[in-house]
Amino acid sequence: MADNNKQSKWSDFFFYALPVVSPGLTVLCTTQIGGKEGAGKILLIVSAVVSAILAPLLSLVAQRRYRQVEGIKFEAAMSAVIDHMGTLTSGPDDSLAILRQIHDRLITTLAKDVSSRARAAFYSLDEEGRLKREVVYGGANPPERFDEKDEQALLNAIMQGEPVYIDDNRDTKGNLKINLGNDYQAALVAPAYAGSVAQGVLIIDAPKAKELSKVRKSYVLVFAHMIGTATALGRQAVAE
Q: Phi and psi (nearest 5°) for 84?
């Protein structure tokens, strides 16, 4: 185990430190070329070229490695969610606790992926057609229930069936304005459905304007509808 940890540390140095050191080596070799002749000069030229190529090459390898690690984490998170959904269908006594775990895992995974500073919350539709807070991620502290104006705006967004991007809460031009507290400027609101039946709304926010504008609609809807499907299964399990 100790050898594996040591190898990992050297691997991290190779992939992350060398891209930083490499440009410095290129500059150093280049400044020394003028004072050298013959084989020494050729060696410095070759060293400068190699070090110049090394930085972008290692950066590319490091990026691929990072994406691979993140992909493994994502797969693990989704695998746990799917396992929990399978458990819901059997109608366990603790279905509400399992449903909460599913909600929490999904909004946490999505928020972490779209921005390191993003927060998220899921509000379900109760039997009276009102929104009720279920889970929150990222230190947000939104109300358990919205006031009438904000709730109606969110209900309208749910009925549209499409994610609503709020680039800047300071200038919405009369459109939907919402965040999870602390005057965060960017927000994203996505309806959560199970089939054609609305189950609630997913809200994500971030500190800076337009911070969420590049988040793919299809990607958000996958999470939103997984949340909606899990909610419907959980309610069905409780009813049985």
A: -65, -40
Q: Are strands 119-125 and 164-166 parallel, antiparallel or unpaired?
A: unpaired
Query: How many CB atoms lie under 10 A from the CB of residue 48?
Result: 19
pLDDT tens per residue across span 109-130: 899 989 989 999 999 999 999 9
Instruction: Give the percent of the chain with pLDDT over 70.
Output: 61
The three-class DSSP label of residue 228 is helix
pTM: 0.68
Helix (H) or strand (E) holding 189: strand 186-194
CA distance 28 to 32: 6
Give the strands of the sheet with 119-125, arranged side by side.
131-137, 119-125, 197-206, 186-194, 164-166
pLDDT in tens, 42-57: 565 555 555 555 556 5
Q: What is the pLDDT of residues 185-238, one digit of tens each?
A: 999 999 999 889 999 999 999 999 999 999 999 889 988 988 998 888 888 877
**What is the C-alpha separation between 58 and 18, in angstroms, rounded?**
8
Run of H or E residues at 132: strand 131-137
What is the rounded CA–CA span in Å between residue 215 and residue 115? 9
Angstrom distance (rounded) from CA 70 to CA 207: 23
Query: Which of 68, 212, 200, 215 is closest to 146 using CA atoms?
Result: 200
